[in-house]
Specification:
This protein has 54 residues and is an all-alpha fold. 81% of the residues lie in helices and 0% in strands. The N and C termini lie close together (9 Å). Belongs to the UPF0057 (PMP3) family.
Length: 54
């Protein structure tokens, strides 16, 4: 993961996931929902999904 993606995941988790997997992916929709429910769950999911997929 690059420094830019780490910073983007901390600031705007759905945008970081959308850049990597696309807007129509289930990962983006889940991350968007988690971020709307609370910033921290969105960030955790963002880092998890970024690290999980190569």
């Amino acid at each position: 993961m690059s420094i830019l993606m780490i910073i983007l995941t901390l600031l705007l988790p759905p945008l970081a996931v959308a850049i990597r997997f696309g807007v129509a992916s289930s990962a983006f929709l889940i991350n968007l929902l988690l971020t709307l429910l609370g910033w921290l769950p969105g960030v955790i999911h963002g880092f998890w999904i970024q690290a999980k997929k190569p």
